[in-house]
Amino acid sequence: MDIPMELLRFNLSKVRIPEPTNRIYKHECCISFDTPKSEGGLFVDMFSFLAFGKDYVMWNYEKTGNAVYLCIKQSPKSHSPENRPFKKPTLLAIGLDGGFDNQEIEYEETYSIHILPDNVFLQWPSVELPEKVRLAVDKILIAEDAERKQQVESWVADKKKVSIFAINLYQINAGTIIPSSGWKCCKCDKVDNLWLNLTDGMILCGRKNWDGSGGNDHAVEHYNLTKYPLSVKLGTITADLEAADVFSYPEDESVEDPLLADHLSFFGIDISSMQKTEMTTSERELDQNTNFDWNRIEESGHEMQRLTGPGYTGLYNLGNSCYLAATMQVIFSTQHFQKRYFSMQSLKNAFIAAPADPTVNLNTQLAKLGHGLLSGRYSISETENQNGIQPKMFKSVISASHPEFSTMRQQDALEFFLHLLDQVERANVGKPNLDPSRSFKFYIEERLQCSSGKVSYNKRPDYILSLNIPLSEATNREELDAFNKLKEEKISQGTEVSSEESVRPRVPLDACLASFSAPEYVPGFYSTELNAKITAVKTAGFTTFPDYLVLHMRRFVMEEGWVPKKLDVFVDVPDVIDISHMRSKGLQLGEELLPDTVVESELRPELMINADNDIVSKLAAMGFKYSHCQKAAMNTSNVGVEEAMNWLLSHMDDADIDAPIIYENKNEEIVLPINEASVETLVSFGFKEEVAVKALRASDGNIEKATDWIFSHPEASNPIDMDASPSNPHSSTDSDLPDGNGKYKLIGLVSHVGTSTHCGHYVAHVLKEGRWVIFNDTKVAISINPPKDLGYLYFFERINS
């Protein structure tokens, strides 16, 4: 009697033939980071199609009773070289010819049928197996893995789109002829990084990079002045016009110009005589992706000692996922996350408590990630190619409610951190004692004082303290003045300052904290006491101090023309800080609160009327400012366009014409319409629509002010409702949060290299066992010189007395 075959036939009800809609996992265990390459292989449940490592498959049998599994094992092919020569990529792609070679060893797979709880195996393929089993195995093996459906294996930079300005581009016939070489910027002495404007033939230098390299911004300044939309980078023009670097300023991206040959011919350029002498924007991006030796932050040039074992496991980059890797390494260095998802949470209990599909449960995947990072199971190699783990399932579940994080594009580590804590809070709702996100949460109380002397207090929750960097408080003013003088001399001589000669401002963290606490004047504040708009004084302070304080340095600001710029500045951050003086004192003896509402009869007439949308849109079409049109319609009681225009023309010079409109009527807020074009403009900058609307409302519809508002209110993108609402200063809404003294020690930082939060690279440094450790994707080593002055996010732990 063939016992294994009889056992298989007995359990045929536990075998399903996969349907096209079934999610099949065959590359990684759903509760650990075991793969077919792991010892014992990977076991695919032939009923649920979930996969388990050899140490975990019995848990699934005990939970579900599913007894039949396809065991997949992978072993290196004997002829597969482990150290193939590196081939420089020519395409910004992964897994395609010319793209990045992942240098992986080739493996061969073997299969068998495994039956629990008897632990018997049947070889596959075999004609003796029941037809249902053979069909099921065939379907599993040819099916695309569920993880691969969610992750693009061949990642390629977005293909350039045809510019909407290319077909009907207007060109000025001024007799301009462009030579085939010897170009120079029309406004400075730059002879490289030059752009030819395709409308008027002006040759101007490109944008200045955050590190001082690049051009002097003359090309973009020319666009801001003329609005001529397209420019082509000189030195990238050849007979292969598709390779030319054409940039559209209004579309703010590299584009394709299908009529480029004609547009160049207009200025006497014969493409057949042109030779390539400059890198395109995409090539520079490619070069950046192949050279992650970015000195200070990555500590390049140092021979660092690799670390392995518990707590020293790296995270593979899944394609621009360094923002996730750096953030999670610091998060799992905190005691609360370690306890919740590792030391006080066994994997087995997490799996038992999980729903039928543990791959879509955040708490289960956080436990999996915590055990993967902290157990040391996947960090045992002493070779240079250190082992690590691929957080694919975690990335899938954490991005399910945030589509941007599911892409292969780079993301903002701050935005990811806030999204993570929001999701962790939701996953632990009703279990405050288990929720580790509470260790980061605190309340800020804002105090507004009007000229009457009366005050109002508002509280809002937050996870981060976002700080401006006051460059005026730099401690190395003499060195900066000398550097600026040298720079002017170099420019006058037609040369550039070398990186060795560059001097960055040094601003102490205390100055950043003082900037947050300093009184701020708020013009246009409507006083319910005076029934008028006045300039109020705002101060802010903590009502609770969290167990872990996260400081966000606002290194990214908006320049004129809404161009993001990274501040080239050092911030001197000490190992220990004390912010006890930043605690809010609340309502003081003798202070009187502003009334909540205004008597209806005292409201100004214009505040009682909604602006007529038709009148406003017609005035706006004439070129008037949108908020001015609203005021004109409201102050003329919506009689008509002519009356509103007459009012507007006679009040253009009013001192308060740009002051915010107060919409209040019978204690209800009147929400006036926002210009949809303004919303679309902000969305095109990469902001979410709801954030754009909120910013425009706070900025009276002014796009530039709204952009500044977004960058100065990073919490606006936090899913938590951050709108401050009047509250009793003695309210107990914050009483259930952790609180203690205001003394903290630095335990980690996330640093960023690059010109924008949505490109470049993130690296984490964590204080572990009395020494600083660098976590650079899978690279984990003792840090020689942690870049404490270049951090983007700083993590502090409270020092308990």
Mean pLDDT comes to 81
Largest sheet: 8 strands, mixed
What proportion of the residues is helical, as a percent range?
Answer: 25-40%
CATH architecture identity of the domain at 440-582? Alpha-Beta Complex
Task: Count every helix, treating DSSP H or I runs of 4 or more residues as helices.
Answer: 22
Instruction: Please give the radius of gyration in angstroms.
Output: 31 Å
- Runs with pLDDT <50, length 5+? 90-96, 151-158, 288-295, 598-608, 664-672, 718-732
3D structure, described in words:
- The structure is a single chain.
- The strands form 8 sheets. Strands 15, 19, 23, 27, 28, 29, 30 and 31 form an 8-stranded mixed sheet that branches. A 5-stranded antiparallel sheet has the order 2-1-3-4-5. It has a 5-stranded antiparallel sheet with strand order 7-6-8-9-10, with helices on one face.
- The protein has 22 helices and 31 strands.
- Among the domains are: 3-77 and 107-143, 2-Layer Sandwich (Herpes Virus-1); 194-285, 2-Layer Sandwich (Herpes Virus-1); 440-582, Cathepsin B, Chain A (Alpha-Beta Complex), CATH 3.90.70.10; 595-665, Orthogonal Bundle (Helicase, Ruva Protein, domain 3), CATH 1.10.8; 678-713, Helicase, Ruva Protein, domain 3.
- The chain is of the alpha+beta class.
- Residues 90-96, 151-158, 288-295, 598-608, 664-672 and 718-732 have low confidence and may be disordered.
- A hairpin with a 7-residue loop joins strand 27 and strand 28.
- Helix 20 (676-684) crosses helix 21 (689-698) and helix 21 (689-698) packs across helix 22 (703-712).
- The longest helix is centred in the middle third of the chain and has 16 residues, at 477-492.
- Recognizes and hydrolyzes the peptide bond at the C-terminal Gly of ubiquitin. Involved in the processing of poly-ubiquitin precursors as well as that of ubiquitinated proteins.
- This is Ubiquitin carboxyl-terminal hydrolase.
- One of its GO terms (molecular function) is zinc ion binding.
